[in-house]
User: Fold this.
Amino acid sequence: MTMPMTTDAPNTVLALIDAMAEQLTQAGVGFGHGTTNAFDEAAWLVLWKLGLPLDALDAQAAAPVTPAQQAEVAALIDTRIATRKPAAYLTGEAWLQGVPFYVDERAIVPRSFIAELLADPDLGEALDSWLSEDTDRVLDLCTGNGSLAVLAAMAYPQVRVDAADLSTDALEVARINVQRHGLSDRITLVESDGLAALDGSYGLILCNPPYVNAASMAVLPAEYLAEPELALAGGEDGMDFVRQLLRDAPARMLPQAVLVLEIGNERAYFEAAFPTLEAVWLETSAGEDQVLLVTREALLAWRQETEEAV
Ligand SMILES: C[S@@+](CC[C@H](N)C(=O)[O-])C[C@H]1O[C@@H](n2cnc3c(N)ncnc32)[C@H](O)[C@@H]1O
Assistant:
């Protein structure tokens, strides 16, 4: 698999990226953990291995690479192909909205579209318009490596954030990120099964839960199998965690509070499971089908209606 070092060996950064992208394509690796195509994935790995800034490809494109560097990069690409691990697990870092996060296999690679709502001023307006001036406590439920908790603390400097997860492994990774961004005094990490161990009243609950349905879990590309199953699997229709959350959430929400929930490509399953719940779909770069908002009021109305129907 290793690239032969011939006279045609790619001896600039851009040529090396092109060659590595071709290898990734030939090997049929899967994307979706920070990149969507072979060129971007190769650029990430090549620039990282060469110690170059990840956002400066244009400036570095014509820079020379030595045969030794070419060999080191080729070995990294070989590992990516042989192990099928997402690039972030090989580099130990993932970027979300321009913010770097430590990552390892104890937590899912962060890629939540809720991050856009927190960090992109244009998209964030839609979320801000739902928040009360008095919002001073935010919950990031299912925090994983803590990225949404960190972005929320950055976006709302006046709030305190609880970051909860059932996985103590994930919470250890989250602790590294909270410390890295100097937010230990404003973010509290909590081990909790859903909302069970939480007693706060929040103005905003963020949640990117496990929501992959059983049929999708059975055919996941290998890259996803490198991630903790607990972070992905949501039961037969993907809605096991969400079903419980929607019932429990009002008790942990202030009267004007909202819940922002990511459900990936599962909108059809969500609507089939909760047909009468009034949800507002929020626009992100993934479209208007992946992240939704529900008010406490809507949750209470839905809960009452479904209980009466039983
Ligand atoms: C899709 S990942 C999201 C992680 C992170 N918020 C992100 O966006 O990158 C889902 C997370 O939910 C956690 N989780 C699964 N079941 C849970 C439960 N019953 N209670 C709390 N957290 C749970 C997993 O450990 C995982 O970290």
The first strand starts at residue 93 and ends at 96. The chain has 14 helices and nine strands. The beta strands are 93-96, 99-102, 137-141, 160-165, 187-191, 202-207, 253-262, 280-284, 287-295.
